[in-house]
């Protein structure tokens, strides 16, 4: 009896200690949050694209020594599924490559002469955003600054920008930010750490080896980072709306000996925009302060691009890829992926819980190429009919197969089987188990026979396969579970 009372006493003391520790950590979190976010009340107001997501939580997530975007933003991002990436800048005048400056070893003075030739009079923010929307895209991410350092907005940091150097003299980033808000899709930015133009970007990275482009052979990377952070502060000040995501790129240029001061950059963003999702194309799982994992030219876990890591984190995932072969405008590149290939990319991404950020490299005129428009429209046509099987879904429970993927509506929604490539079998073994009650074709509702014997087997003998996606709906009671075949 005495022992029991003593144990109870110790337990109570332990609980008190626990509560005190919890209290201290809450106060610390609060202090940390308020340290970073100046106007908490203002910052916590949900941005326009987060309508309906408020209940997931608008507070930024405090994670050890770092601050991450809100849970509402994470959920929105996972649901968004499909976005438009845009690589645009003065390099489009040459019509070769966004790395044109480096590839052809330009001198800074000569490269700067491209700016007066960049006059995109046919650029129409309304048309770009409408096309993205028509394709079913839920967000847009454009290069505010690529590796050539040129700023597509009215930056107050120096004059290497659209306002001071081009005849166009209009803030492209602001026009798109406003239009996205107007048409209800989210707006994000790509921003390069690597900079071939700024004199203080020194020591030079591997991309500058053997290329003396006229900059002094000295510099202070901290001065460059002050400049870059001041630009990031401009763009996340609210002037450009609530930037839904950031896509940083280029730290791989200098792998050692430089402190990129990433925490400082990320805190500048989250200070004003606690819902802004931060990604960094550093070919690794997200690190401190980062909110989603970026895969370039590859689906998560695939190895179609050797620089990528095969490690797939629990964070939201995104694959970025080109429609043809180039990111920036290349006048000769007509090697566009077909609408079917692009749709397969999107559906497979959804099947493994990733977003697809599909790139467009506009010409210097500002008008999308007809091939791009054609593909956006074709994808939109499919999405309007079958989009419920892709958007606001989660991948699985079946792991991706060579012939297709499975998706499931969130919170008890429908379960879909996407047969993308001919499995060349009459009976399709699906490695899931559970109480399946019915399998039907999405198109027309024809019932498809099946058996359940440790796993689901679908009889495809009477099914005419669709060229893009033979979409089946699997009705069930309770959950389906993945099994090993
Ligand atoms: O060097 C860039 C490249 O130009 C482009 O921006 C892509 C987009 O994923 N990222 C970099 C290469 O890793």
Which terms summarize this structure?
2 domains, five-stranded antiparallel β-sheet, 485 residues, single chain, alpha/beta, binds ligand FHN, globular, 12 helices, TIM Barrel
Which SSEs are present, and which pair or pack?
Blueprint: H1 2-36, H2 40-43, E1 61-63, E2 66-68, H3 71-80, E3 82-86, H4 100-103, H5 108-112, H6 125-135, E4 139-145, H7 162-165, H8 172-183, E5 186-192, H9 221-235, E6 245-249, H10 262-272, E7 277-281, E8 293-296, E9 317-322, H11 339-351, E10 354-360, H12 370-386, E11 393-395, E12 404-409, E13 415-419, E14 427-430, E15 432-441, E16 450-452, E17 456-459, E18 470-482
Parallel strand pairs: 3-4, 3-10, 4-5, 5-6, 6-7, 8-9, 9-10
Antiparallel strand pairs: 1-2, 11-12, 12-13, 13-18, 14-17, 15-18, 16-17
Helix pairs in contact: 6-8, 6-12, 11-12
The protein binds ligand FHN.
Ligand FHN binds at residues 87, 98-99, 249, 281, 296, 320, 327.
Question: What do these coordinates show?
Answer:
The protein has 485 residues and is α/β, with parallel strands linked by helices. It has 2 domains: 75-391, TIM Barrel, CATH 3.20.20; 395-482, Immunoglobulin-like (Sandwich). It contains 12 helices and 18 strands. Strand 11 (393-395) and strand 12 (404-409) form a beta hairpin. The radius of gyration is 25 Å and the shape is globular. It starts with a helix and ends with a strand. The model is unreliable at 1-5 and 14-27 (pLDDT under 50). Ligand FHN binds at residues 87, 98-99, 249, 281, 296, 320, 327.
């Amino acid at each position: 009896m005495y022992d029991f009372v003593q144990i109870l006493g110790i337990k109570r003391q332990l609980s008190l200690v626990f509560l005190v520790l919890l209290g201290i950590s809450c106060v610390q979190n609060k202090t940390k949050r308020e340290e970073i976010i100046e106007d908490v009340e203002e910052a916590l107001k949900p941005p326009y694209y987060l309508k309906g997501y408020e209940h997931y939580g608008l507070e930024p997530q405090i994670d050890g020594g770092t601050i991450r975007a809100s849970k509402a933003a994470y959920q929105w991002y996972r649901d968004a599924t499909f976005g438009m990436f845009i690589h645009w800048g003065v390099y489009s005048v040459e019509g070769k490559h966004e790395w044109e400056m480096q590839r052809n070893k330009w001198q800074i003075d000569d490269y700067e002469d491209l700016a007066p030739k960049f006059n995109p009079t046919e650029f129409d923010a309304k048309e770009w955003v409408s096309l993205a929307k028509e394709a079913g895209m839920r967000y847009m991410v454009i290069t505010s600054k690529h590796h050539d350092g040129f700023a597509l907005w009215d930056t107050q940091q120096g004059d290497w920008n659209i306002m001071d150097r081009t005849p166009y003299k209009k803030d492209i980033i602001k026009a798109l930010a406003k239009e996205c808000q107007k048409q209800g899709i989210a707006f994000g930015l790509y921003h390069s750490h690597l900079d071939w133009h700024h004199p203080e970007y020194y020591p030079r990275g591997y991309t500058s080896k053997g290329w003396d482009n006229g900059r002094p052979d000295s510099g202070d990377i901290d001065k460059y980072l002050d400049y870059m952070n001041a630009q990031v502060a401009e763009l996340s000040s609210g002037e450009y709306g609530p930037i839904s995501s950031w896509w940083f790129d280029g730290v791989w240029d200098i792998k050692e000996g430089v402190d990129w001061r990433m925490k400082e950059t990320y805190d500048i963003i989250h200070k004003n925009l606690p819902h802004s999702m931060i990604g960094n194309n550093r070919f690794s799982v997200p690190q401190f302060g980062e909110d989603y994992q970026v895969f370039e030219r590859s689906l998560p876990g695939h190895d179609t691009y050797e620089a990528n890591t095969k490690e797939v984190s629990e964070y939201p995932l995104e694959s970025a890829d080109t429609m043809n072969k180039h990111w920036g405008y290349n006048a000769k590149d007509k090697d566009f992926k077909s609408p079917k290939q692009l749709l397969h990319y999107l559906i497979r991404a959804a099947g493994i819980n990733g977003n697809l950020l599909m790139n467009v490299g506009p010409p210097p005129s500002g008008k999308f190429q007809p091939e791009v428009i054609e593909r956006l429209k074709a994808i939109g046509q499919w999405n309007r009919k079958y989009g419920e099987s892709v958007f606001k879904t989660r991948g699985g429970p079946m792991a991706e197969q060579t012939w297709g993927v499975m998706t499931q509506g969130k919170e008890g929604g429908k379960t879909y089987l996407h047969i993308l490539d001919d499995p060349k079998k009459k009976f399709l073994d699906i490695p899931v188990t559970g109480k399946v009650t019915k399998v039907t074709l999405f198109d027309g509702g024809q019932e498809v026979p099946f058996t359940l014997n440790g796993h689901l087997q679908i009889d495809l003998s009477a099914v005419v396969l669709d060229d893009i996606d033979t979409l089946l709906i699997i009705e069930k009671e309770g959950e389906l579970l993945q099994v090993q075949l």
